[in-house]
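Entry 14. Two folds queued back to back today. First construct below, sequence then structure tokens.
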Amino acid sequence: LKFLGRSPCPRCLVQKNTIFNLGAKKDRYIRRKTERVDDERRHISIENARKAIFEFGHSVLSTAVE
């Protein structure tokens, strides 16, 4: 997890400023609507970020990783 990130969880898109909504009907609706998709595009993005960090020595906060 990135320090000072907007989301407390790496697996969902819940943002820290909406944690108080957890468990509410609105929260369930938003979670279904903004569910992350684990597709080929996402795999490639993750692979490129890992290469930038581990092979090229870029910082996690660098634009190469974003």
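Second construct, same run, same settings:
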Amino acid sequence: MSPPCVLCFLSFLLCIFPVISSVLHLPLTHFNTNSRDPYQTLNSLVSSSLKRARHLKNPRTTTNTTTPLFSHSYGGYSISLSFGTPPQTLSFIMDTGSDIVWFPCTHRYVCKNCSFSSSSKNKIPSFIPKLSSTSRVVGCRNPQCSWIHHTNTTQCDECENNSNPQNCTQVCPPYFIFYGSGTTGGVALSETLNLGDRTVANFLVGCSVFSSRQPAGIAGFGRGLPSLPAQLKLGKFSYCLISRRFDDSPSSSALILDSNSDFDKKTVGLTYTPFLKNPIVHGKEAFQVYYYIGLRKITVGGRRVKVPYKYLSPGNDGDGGTIVDSGSTFTFMAREIFEPVAGEFVKQVKNYSRARDVEVLTGLRPCFHVKVGEKPVEFPELKLHLKGGAEMALPMGNYFMLVGDGAACFTVVTDSGVGGGEGEVGHSGPAVVLGSFQMQNYYVEYDLTNERLGLKQQLCI
């Protein structure tokens, strides 16, 4: 859809709108490519993880309760939310790397390249504003307009040229959002969010009328003002990501939204690492949305991997450091970190030979030939040592994946992958993006009140 057509359609769209417990539990499920070819599936996930890393490291800017959590084979985890009066329920990808909540909107919603699995062959469900008595288009003078555009400057160009600006009826300009592998655009709505027996009026949500490569709406859980946690004034939220073997199944775990969080009170069984101060970089305001944590060192098989410190700590220019991103599938490591980590595996793995043909097919490396069934497949332990004493000793299934009939591949990606063909991700921005694949079967708590991340390994289902 060309920009002029988009603006015309948005103008038409504007004409069709009519001018409690503190803890909530929501199901969380994992949102798969349509291919049955495991090599093609992995290559697709590698590609999407690299695109996502490129976006997070080089974000583009424009002027412009408990619930079930489900897993999906295209790499994301989804929740269901209900908006409007009467409520309309839609699926949203939970994303801690962005801060805007939006849904597919109107009967005319258009999505390009949005068929990701057999479950998505039917038309993507859309929110219909004219069926809700509480839908309102956000005005340009509404503070929420600046939230969705990530700017403190006024969006009311027409109002400022009006002889009586107080009576100006200009609406908030359309938004355009860029993600790693897709985009979306639409208009900002003020709507009612229904969470169990709780209703939240005047919730800012994006009404997207067109998208590319977006299988569902997105619920931004990042640190910005328009995010779901910020608008709900949550003290903390937590989730447990179920194993990828439950992709596209009815199985789910729970996303917990907690309005209360006592100062310095810790959840039993969790170890904590503090959130780091976000870098403030002109032109890359998205860095302020991320959840940065301190990665002190990485060990493979008990041996410390030598990594330059500047890549482990975020600098004032926004380069370096580690973020937690539920929207990424495979963890990304800058080449200066990845190469010594991968090299340590190659050095320590003696029982298996390299499977370079599989590396080319999947885009993952290193891969090894293994004999499944004769005896347990074993690889050196990968452990992430975090500030505050927290450690993540990853289960082997979180960093090596069996591929085909006799290979296992390291599920961490970097730029210039052997088979991904994605080119340079770039040196700017976070050096490590901790993806959801590595967080399978971890209970993760975002304690917003106390500015820390809690972790505990456990079975999520």
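Quick look at the second one. The longest strand covers residues 198-212. DSSP finds eight helices and 28 strands in the chain.
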